[in-house]
Structures are given as C-alpha cells and as structure tokens.
Amino acid sequence: MPLPVHQHVMGAATETGGGKVYLDMPVNYLKGVGPVRAESLRRLGIVTTRDLLFHIPHRYEDASTITPIASLEPGMDGTIIGKVISKGIIPTRRGLRIFQAVLQDGSGMIEASWPGQPFLDRSIEKGDIMLLSGSVRFFHGRQLQPREHIQLGKDEDDIREGKVLAVYPATEGLSFKVIRGIIDSHLDTLLPLLKEYLPADVLRAAGLPSLRDAIRMVHRPATIAEGTRGRARLAFEELLFIHILHRRANALKRERRSGIAFQNRRQLTSALKDALPFTLTNAQMVAIREIVADMTSDRRMHRLLQGDVGSGKTIVALFAALLAMENGYQSAIMAPTELLAEQHARTFAKFLAPLGLEPLLVTGSLSSRARREAANKLAGTEPVLAVGTHALVQEGALFGRLGFVTIDEQHRFGVEQRAAISAKGASPDVLLMSATPIPRSLALTIYGDLDVSTLDERPAGRQPVTTVMRPESARERVLQFVVRETEKGRQAYVVYPVIEESEKTDLKAATTMYEQLSAGVFAGKVVALIHGRIPADERETIMRAFRDGKIDVLVSTTVIEVGIDVPNATVMLVEHPERFGLSQLHQLRGRVGRGAEASYCILLGNVGDEAAERLRVFVETDDGFEIARADLRLRGMGNLFGQEQSGEATFRIADPVRDEVLNIEARTAAEKLLEEDPTLSTKENAGIRKVLGARYSRALELFRVG
Ligand code: ADP
Ligand code: MG
C-alpha cells in the first residue's frame, strides 16, 4: 500500500449539508465514497481528504491538444476524442483476439484496435465518449493503436465548449471519471480548509501561487497554462522539502559524531578472506575498504550499503562484523524475518567454522532456555556475532559491548526500530543494507546523513534469468512448462498478490489457486502453500522443506520476496504481475537463477496498456538500478519499496529531472531558509516544520519535530 503522505497538519473543519468535513478525515466518510471506493483510492495513495486534494491530474487536454479524427495520418501520433459507434472482438488465425472500436467526432471516424485485450469489450460500450492517445498506422485504412484510453462518459462536451479536461491517474475499479467526480464535488468545501505553510517571501521569490490557489488551479484550470502553474507550486514545495531534509541531514553529518576507533588488526578478517571459497568482486573490495576507513576513524559510521539482489552484500557485512570482533566488541546483524535471520546464521556458521567461531541466533521463537542463554551472552563482554530479528532490540535485550550493527533490508524496518538498535551499546558503527538500489544522487538526497557504498557488480558465473510476459491464453502451456521443470528435478515458485479471494476484486489468490493447482496440473507433485498468515514456525518448516528439495512447487504471496536462497529453484511464475512494483518483481526474480541451471521468470496474465508498458521495462532489463529508476519515474518513491514503506522522502508530484528549473529554485530557497533558521524554529517557519513532520518520518529524526 502506498503510504499516505499527507497527514494531520492543522485541523480546521467546515460544515456542509452532510456534516463536518476536515482535512485529515478518512475519505470513506465523504459523500459518494463508500468502503469499496475508499479501498480503490487507498491503492492510489489516497487515505484522507487532504490526499484527495493532492491527487492531481497527470495531464490536461483542451481543443488545442486534440486532433480532429479527419486529420489523422498514418505515422502520426495523436490524441482524439470520439464516440464509440461500433465495437467487437475479432479473432485472428493465430489465436490472438483483438478488441476493435470505431470512433467518431465531428470531422470523421477511425478504427481503433487493441490486440490481445478482448476483455475491453466488457467495459467499453457503444455510445461511450473516449479519449484515445496513440499512433496511427495504415491497416485496411487508417487505424489507431491506443497507448492510453480514458472513458469520459456518455456526454462529454467540456472540450468542445473550450474547457480544459483534467486527466487523473486512475486505478483498476476506479475510473478517471469517478475520481474526477469525487474531487470536483468536494473541492469547494475543502479549499477553505487549506492554510498556507510556505512563507510569503519564498512564494514571491519563486513567483508561485498560494496553496489554495494552486489546488484550485490544478483541479479546475481555466487554461492548460493555469493547471501547469498550479502544479508547479505543488512540485516546488515537494522539492523544497526534500532539499530542506537533505541540507539538514548534511549539516548533522558534519557535526562530529564520536564513535569507536577500531584498529584494523587483520586477524579475523584476513582469516575469513583466506577461507572464502570465492574471490571478492571489485565492488565488494571497494565497499569493504570504505567501511574499514569509517570503522577505524573515531567518527561514528552511518553508512548505507546498496546493491542489487545477489550482489553479495552479506559477506561485506560479515567482514565489518569481524573487524569489530577482533577488537573485542560484539557485532549484530538484524534481518526483517526469522527465515532470513536463520539463513544468515547458517551462512555465517559455514564461513566462520574455519575460524573457530559460531554465530548466535536471536529470534522470537527461541525456547525460553535458549533465549536466556542468548541474553546472557549478549549481556556479557565476549565478542559475539548476534544474528536475529527485531528480537535483538526488544526490551530486555542488553548488549555488554556492542561495537557494530548491520540492518539487512533496512527499509523493512521502521525509523524507531532502526534507531533502537543503533542506540544499543556505546554508539556502535551502523551499516544499513538495501537490495533496492537507487541512483546515487537520489540516495544522497533521501539519505543525506548517510554515506553510501554501492555494489554495482555481480559475482561472476551467475546465469541471467530468462524473463517473459505471457497472456492468459498461454496459461496451459506455461503451467506445462513448470511441470516439465519439476520433472527435471527443479523447483518452482508461483506467486499471487493476495492470500484470499474477495468479493471486491476478481484477483486470483494464493489459497484458492493452491487448491486448484495441486489437484489439477500439479497433481502428483508436492505442492505447498505459504503466506503471511501462516504462523512463522510453520512457514519456517515449509521453507526448510522447500530448501531441502522436498517440495516441487511453492505457491505463495510475496512473503518469499526477501533474500531466500534456494539454488535448485529455476522458475518464478508471477500471476497478476500488474499488482506488483517493478522493484518488488525484481526481488522475486532474484529468488531464481541462483544455481547452475537456466532459470525463468514468467509474468502470467492479461494486463492493461499502462501496466504492460511498465512491465516491459522489467522484462527487458536485469539491472536493479534501472528498474528502481523506472519505478521511481512511473510510480514515485512511495511504491519503490513495496508495501512496508517506512516514510522515506517521496515525490508524488515533482520529478527532479523534468522539473529541473523548479528544482534549482527550490534548492536556493532551502539554502536561504536554513541559513537564516537552521532548525526551523522561528514562527514564520512553524508551518513548514509541521508539514515536514507530518509528511516525512525522516524529519522526526532530523528536526526532532512531532
Ligand atoms: P545479496 O546482496 O542479495 O544479499 P548475498 O549476500 O546473499 O546477496 O549473496 C548471494 C550469493 O552470492 C551467496 O550465496 C554468496 O555466498 C555468494 N557470493 C557473494 N560474494 C561472492 C563472490 N565474490 N563470488 C561468488 N559468490 C559470491
Ligand atoms: Mg541479502
């Protein structure tokens, strides 16, 4: 779920016929929004009425941007508005089904064609007015191949009357028209509740409208230029906030944080290097060098190690842990799930055995005796490598001499948990690890107070994973392929977006598909089901059986997304791929291709145009950086890390690349603001401070607001 970015900032309310309306009111209390629509809105990141105001059109159309149908020529790209005068599904000889419609405007008509999307026949009706964008080709006459289509309703005269059409991002089950209707009918009530939080001179310097004006302009622009101007103000404030956070983080970083100055004794670390069954990649060596430099300085390390799935982050962390231990300190590695913690413990046990060391596993499911023993070791002063879950920071867990902490899949933890483990011991050095690599400049913007090391190289000998997208019509063939892989002794994952079916959506669900598949195409194979509602210990048993090759096909939700390593698994089949973020899919794909055999990632199902375009990026590249960048571009920061986002800085409206000029202005404004008021504690800046605290949990750490 994308995070609700706009929360509890100033709580005025106005009366309407239906009762009190306030900005932080959940949208389901609004007239015209029931629980079903509220759920769809939530998928768009809209939880409160404030979020609704900030859900702005992604583009505008007016008479000048619409091409009369008569003037479309083959080879041209255009946007048209027309009425559907006929429609139908056309089968082709190769089994592909094409949805076609003929659209008409005052100037003429044209055929539009959607290959492989026969399901559109259910939602597009004769008489509908539609907006289509796409390219025109010659095929028995002119034919439009829509990239995007929007149903405007039955009688859309806006554009003909010279008005501007605002096009909103929509989602499955919630059309553009409904969204526009909801926003439009509440705009007048909500606008007066908005209070400006940017200082007047900042707005004046940037030449931008006030908040209230901007929100009105984006939703009800008189001209396209006005809509763009309103948007500019909202993009500007996002950029401004990010620059403020960034500069503040940097200022804090420059303040000297004292830490432990370890000595590079090269005892355990050299022994580990000698015992490794492989040689480190260049990127790993550089990262280790950067970490050693941090740890041997008397400044406290606060570093992010980012690298694609399989880039070998764990071993880098192990070197750091050993450096602390050979200095007589304790080290801890915290992972988001028990499975992952146990896997790390096993990996470490293997690498450390030649050194005569053994990791100490600390999870919530230890027996009470084991837990007591672990607690005693942690409270002692002997060097120990503790590997665990958040059980490491839960009350009672005391460290006698903690010198180094690493947090794996750091974005899965909340700010508080990260802070809690860092606060253990006498200011241990901290290494955060992330498998969702983002461009360096962005990393520095978001994590301004962190130093960043990047593993941009994969260990040699890794097989690329063949990735394909297959339509519903290929289901049987795809499943037969999976069967053949299992018959070769390989294993497969089949992933679904939800655990159970619900009345609200027609999504295939892990539970029902598990029953269907195990009785059907996989009959005779060992099929197991795993998801987040199965108790942790049972999940562990299932995963262990899968790891040991006792299960052929594992049907699951994204619980397997995180770091699990099963080299014999060669197929990752994902249903409803449009429901996942690209980075999330990339994590899933990272579960296969870990052994010597050729591996496959198959996205199965019919998806809409927009989703298909997004998924194409994933199919075409195996580079996690590029995928993260595409995710950022297409869905914004809020979606980058999947559902368990922890309030990092987000862009919903601005695009630092496209809005380059605004970005420079915002940076200048942030500089000036913080020069005059470094902690934002003056009265004029109280508004900014409040909004920052509400929107970005990082602000809690950086400005101590909240
Ligand atoms: P991730 O960065 O996704 O956490 P891991 O640390 O789990 O990756 O490493 C993935 C696999 O690659 C592990 O089996 C690990 O032992 C192996 N590995 C790590 N570094 C190297 C290397 N330099 N050469 C070969 N294999 C490596
Ligand atoms: Mg990992």
Structure description:
It is a single chain. This protein is α/β, with parallel strands linked by helices and 706 residues long. Among the domains are: 82 residues, no CATH class; 94 residues, Beta Barrel (OB fold (Dihydrolipoamide Acetyltransferase, E2P)); 135 residues, Rossmann fold; 157 residues, Rossmann fold (3-Layer(aba) Sandwich). It is built from 23 helices and 22 strands. Helix 12 links the parallel strand 12 and strand 13. The site of adenosine-5'-diphosphate has 16 residues, from helix 10.
Summarize model confidence as the mean pLDDT: 85
Helical coverage, percent range: 25-40%
Text of the CATH class of the domain at 465-621: Alpha Beta
Number of helices: 23
CATH superfamily of the domain at 465-621: P-loop containing nucleotide triphosphate hydrolases
- The radius of gyration computed from the alpha-carbon positions, rounded to a whole number of angstroms, is 28 Å
Largest sheet entry: 7 strands, parallel
Number of strands: 22
**Percent of residues in beta strands?**
15-25%
Output the strand order for the largest sheet: 12-13-11-14-15-10-16
